[in-house]
Write a structure and sequence with these properties.
Layout: E1 6-13, H1 19-29, H2 47-52, E2 59-66, E3 72-79, H3 87-95, E4 99-105, H4 112-123, E5 127-133, H5 142-153, E6 161-162, H6 171-181, E7 194-203, E8 207-216, E9 219-220, E10 224-227, E11 233-235, E12 238-242, E13 246-248, E14 251-252, E15 257-261, E16 275-278, E17 297-303, H7 309-322, E18 327-333, E19 337-344, H8 347-360, E20 365-367, E21 374-378, E22 383-386, E23 398-413, H9 417-426, E24 430-437, E25 440-448, H10 450-453, H11 456-463, E26 469-480, E27 482-489, E28 492-493, E29 499-502, H12 503-520, E30 528-534, E31 537-544, H13 560-575, E32 577-580, E33 583-586, H14 588-592
Parallel strand pairs: 1-3, 1-4, 4-5, 5-6
Antiparallel strand pairs: 2-3, 7-8, 7-16, 8-15, 9-14, 10-11, 10-16, 12-13, 12-15, 17-19, 17-20, 18-19, 21-22, 21-23, 23-25, 23-26, 24-25, 27-28, 27-29, 27-30, 30-31, 32-33
Bound molecules: guanosine-5'-diphosphate (GDP) and magnesium ion (MG).
């Protein structure tokens, strides 16, 4: 296709407004898949995405469309995740496109992530086409929502395309808008090759698969290329596109998106944001690349079985290849042995990575208490970043500690505003702004990140019956009265459960953790004392009574096979436990104990 008949676009929207459904319809309408191949939400191909009904990874598809002007166009679509934890994924997709379809649910209107995403698209210099989705719903109010888009976002919505992604109504209108309203990419086919590494993942047979966007020049099979920042050179084995199936092509030119493989087995050779150049005719300047992502939540990940440490290391490297917003480094814990300190963009991100490690790499893991990054100012004048509560220096060496704050934007129907304001003030929030958009309130708050990471999002959803939406940005550090709370099980310190909290919350959270652990740790043959302490001072305590029977006792009589099964089951359960002194703590207790309610 000539470059002026290429359109590269992202679909952006608040979660559940219909991005993935629209992507399905576009693929269907342009014949990318046969009816038999067409499943629901084809682009959410990770099991985890299908189960949770959310998009985690950005996906790309090449569509071919014959427009009303009689010409064939190549449309490259990127579907993006909507949850705030995956904003980094969104920013990367946007950098690979010239325009965005902004999908807004016509029965819900503009939500917090609609705003956050649209601002990112504007920043990326995108042309934006507003799409009003779900007009089939009786509750749809397209005219009102158009007005909202103009008032809140400041975008002209008079030409918004009204559709139902579910019924397929006016998908043609979306395709025409892409062709007539978005600009074609720019690029020079005769200049030396420059291609942006947008994403990458590891395939057992092909090695590293690299998703690219070509800026200048061409990339073809057999060509020797170089990763500009990493320095490694490779011979291109396969060039192709997703339709969404992988289909090989001869080459990719300026403005095109697709993948390459080059039998790369060392995952460290590839970095998202790097520029691919021709080895014999190298371009001088790299492409702008991406802003590095900065993890805001850290936790330790340890194999349940210590023999899995090397496997965990390899798996983390492969996962990192597929998720540049995830960071890790080796660490050790007195209680858990060898493991890794891992950084995430939020708690959902943490849960997803943990689950992917268990499913895709078959690893049983223990996650320690998630923590934000504190700044410790020592009396000696040194300042250090604290990623792990277990590393907190002795109070006598601390002059003061700073904690990270965020600026949160919350949108909520008027009826639930009171509950949201209460929640924010319980979490030490400071109101910055409160305005109205129709009968929806938009509250802007400054909140300590520490009060948000564990369960703020869940609480927000529950006190507003799912109607509140939320987005946040980091907003600097401020001094705070913070203490470390240690957890002791039968007198032994479990360093993996230590956490840092504001002094005013310490007792409540200490008590809550002890109560949770009491339910989460199974009874054992002796009494177990669970204590929370600040320094040497115990602030909460629970006791688990002793148990004397073994599990087979309840099988009266002689059903041997049943008895054996029970013992097997008990052994299986043991694998997922960790020994602390004499006490066994199940893997599930570690994260569950930290979720407040
Ligand atoms: P995403 O989170 O933006 O990717 O949203 P999804 O595409 O997963 O859609 C969220 C939900 O809205 C799903 O249950 C869809 O079936 C539903 N949905 C999407 N588009 C429409 C539509 O046009 N009309 C109706 N009634 N429901 C829709
Ligand atoms: Mg989706």
């Amino acid at each position: 296709t000539p470059i002026d008949r290429i359109r590269n676009f992202s679909i952006i929207a608040h979660i559940d407004h219909g991005k993935s459904t629209l992507a399905d319809r576009l693929i269907q309408a342009t014949g990318g898949l046969s009816a038999r191949e067409m499943t629901e939400q084809v682009l959410d191909n990770m099991d985890l995405e299908k189960e949770r009904g959310i998009t985690i990874k950005a996906q790309t598809v090449r569509l071919t469309y014959k427009a009303k002007d009689g010409l064939d166009y190549t449309l490259n679509l990127m579907d993006t995740p909507g949850h705030v934890d995956f904003a980094y994924e969104v920013s990367r997709s946007l950098a690979a496109c010239e325009g965005s379809l902004l999908v807004v649910d016509a029965s819900q209107g503009v939500e917090a992530q609609t705003l956050a995403n649209v601002y990112q698209a504007i920043e990326a210099g995108h042309e934006i086409v507003p799409i009003l989705n779900k007009v089939d719903l009786p509750a749809a109010e397209p005219e009102k929502v158009k007005q909202q888009i103009e008032d809140v976002i400041g975008l002209d919505a008079s030409d918004a395309v009204m559709i139902s992604a579910k019924t397929g109504l006016n998908i043609e209108g979306v395709l025409e808008a892409l062709v007539t309203r978005l600009p074609p990419p720019k690029g020079d086919p005769d200049a030396p090759l420059k291609a942006l590494v947008v994403d990458s993942w590891y395939d057992q047979y092909l090695g590293v698969v690299i998703l690219i966007r070509v800026k200048d020049g061409r990339i073809r099979r057999g060509q020797k290329v170089r990763m500009m920042a990493r320095g490694s050179a490779h011979s291109v084995e396969q060039v192709g596109v997703f339709t969404p199936r992988m289909v090989a092509v001869d080459d990719l030119g300026p403005g095109e998106m697709g993948y390459i493989t080059a039998a790369i087995k060392t995952v460290a050779d590839v970095a998202v944001g790097d520029t691919i150049i021709d080895d014999r005719n190298p371009a001088a300047e790299p492409l702008p690349g991406f802003k590095p992502s900065i993890p805001v939540v850290w936790c330790g990940l340890y194999p349940v079985d210590a023999d899995d440490f090397e496997k965990l290391r390899e798996s983390l490297a492969k996962l990192r290849l597929n998720d540049a917003s995830f960071h890790y480094e080796a660490e050790t814990s007195a209680a858990l042995g060898f493991g890794f300190r891992c950084g995430f963009l939020g708690l959902l991100h943490l849960e997803i990575i943990q689950e992917r490690l268990q499913r895709e790499f078959d690893l049983d893991l223990i996650a320690t208490a998630p923590s934000v990054v504190y700044r410790v100012h020592r009396t000696s004048g040194e300042v250090e970043e604290l990623h792990n509560p277990a590393d907190m220096p002795d109070p006598s060496q601390i002059d003061h500690i700073e904690e990270p704050w965020i600026k949160a934007t919350i949108m909520v129907p008027d009826d639930y505003l009171g509950a949201i304001l209460t929640l924010c003030s319980e979490r030490r929030g400071q109101q910055v702004d409160l305005t109205y958009v129709g009968n929806r309130a938009m509250a802007v708050y400054r909140l300590p990140l520490n009060e948000v990471v564990f369960d703020f999002y869940d609480r927000l959803k529950s006190v507003s019956r799912g109607y509140a939406s939320f987005d946040y940005q980091m907003d600097g550090y401020a001094e705070s009265d913070l203490v470390r709370i240690s957890i002791l099980v039968n007198g032994d310190l479990v360093d993996a459960l230590s956490f840092i909290a504001h002094r005013s919350q310490a007792e409540r959270r200490g008590r809550s953790i002890c109560e949770k652990l009491k339910d989460l740790i199974p009874r054992q043959l002796f009494k177990i004392a669970i204590q929370a302490a600040i320094g040497g001072r115990v602030i909460a305590r629970e006791t688990i009574g002793a148990l004397s029977k073994d599990v087979t006792a309840k099988c009266y009589g002689g059903d041997i096979s049943r008895k054996r099964k029970l013992l097997e089951k008990q052994k299986e359960g043991k694998k997922r436990m960790r020994q602390f002194g004499k006490v066994e703590i199940p893997q599930s207790a570690f994260l569950a104990a930290l979720k407040m309610d």
